[in-house]
Design goal:
The structure is a single chain. Helix content is 77%, strand content 0%. By secondary structure, the protein is mainly α. It has one domain. Helix 1 packs antiparallel against helix 4, helix 4 crosses helix 5 and helix 6 packs antiparallel against helix 7.
C-alpha cells in the first residue's frame, strides 16, 4: 500500500540476480578506476596508466575499455586523463542507477537496463569484425543475453502487476 506504484516485492529470478551482480560489479570497478585515476592525475603519477593503456588495448574486450585504452595511450595529458576519469565516473554512476532501479523493482528499471545493454551492441559488433577476439565475442554475447532475457521478462510481465524486489 505505501510502496511506489512500480515497486512490489518477492524473490528475484536467478537471471535478474545475475544481471544485478554484473551491474553492481561493473559500477564499483568503474568508480574505483575513476577515483584511482583522479588521485594519480592529481599527484602527477600517470606512468602506471601507460602500461594499463597497453593492457586494455591488447587484452580487454569492452568497447568502453578499448576507448579507454586508446584515450590513455594517445592523451596522457592531465586534461585527457580528466576526460577519461569523467567518462569512467559517468558510466559507473549510470550503471549504478541501472542496478539500483533493477534491485528496487521499478518497472522502468528493466527497460533502462535493456536499452543500456542494447545501445553498445552495434559498436561491439563493429569492433569484433575489425579486431576479433574471444573477449569481444564473450562481451557481445553477454550483452545480447541480457537484452534477450530482459525482453522476454518484460513481455512476460507486460500485463498486470509483477513482483520484484528485495
Amino acid at each position: 500500500m505505501g510502496q511506489d506504484a512500480g515497486v512490489t516485492t518477492h524473490r528475484r529470478e536467478a537471471g535478474i540476480r545475475m544481471i544485478l551482480a554484473y551491474k553492481v560489479g561493473k559500477a564499483a570497478l568503474w568508480l574505483v578506476l575513476a577515483t584511482v585515476l583522479g588521485v594519480l592525475v592529481t599527484t602527477g603519477r600517470v606512468e602506471p596508466f601507460r602500461e594499463m593503456a597497453e593492457e586494455l588495448q591488447t587484452h580487454v574486450a569492452s568497447r568502453w575499455s578499448l576507448l579507454l585504452g586508446r584515450a590513455l595511450a594517445s592523451a596522457l595529458s592531465a586534461r585527457g586523463l580528466r576526460l577519461v576519469e569523467l567518462g569512467l565516473a559517468l558510466d559507473g554512476l549510470s550503471t549504478a542507477v541501472e542496478a539500483w532501479a533493477l534491485w528496487r523493482g521499478h518497472r522502468w528499471g528493466h527497460w533502462l537496463v535493456a536499452v543500456a545493454s542494447a545501445v553498445p551492441v552495434p559498436f561491439e559488433v563493429w569492433e569484433l569484425v575489425r579486431r576479433p577476439s574471444p573477449w569481444r565475442a564473450l562481451l557481445l554475447l553477454a550483452n545480447l543475453a541480457v537484452v534477450a532475457y530482459l525482453a522476454r521478462w518484460l513481455r512476460r510481465h507486460h500485463r498486470g502487476e509483477y513482483t520484484v524486489g528485495p
